[in-house]
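Proteins fold. Shown next:

***
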Amino acid sequence: MFLFQFSHYFTYPEDQVTYFAFSFPFSFQESIEQTDLIQTKLFNQPNIYFNRDVLCYSLEGRKVEIVTISSKDGIQEEFEKTPDPDIFPEGNHCNRFANKKVVFLTSRVHPGETPGSHVLNGFIELLTE
């Protein structure tokens, strides 16, 4: 068992409560801004397909977005169909693609899963370089 002696590094009054974060913060606003940056970066790229859509709304009324990033290879004029009116309440539905495999990534399903946001953003950054 590893025992870390905080008293060697931090000094504070005994009646003071000190909190340590599990991970670097990543707010909902930062998530929106990061998606905005990716969208701007990929805008007008000749063979890159980018689509951003509202999947649903959270209980607090926040947008839960789904982002599609792909090459334009196999793109069709037809759009994905909405299986249920409660899903995709707004309309920028993704184009369909012929014979293309799909990789579906999700992160931050629960509010405390902040590290997942960092991992997903790193992955997207790697894909879009």
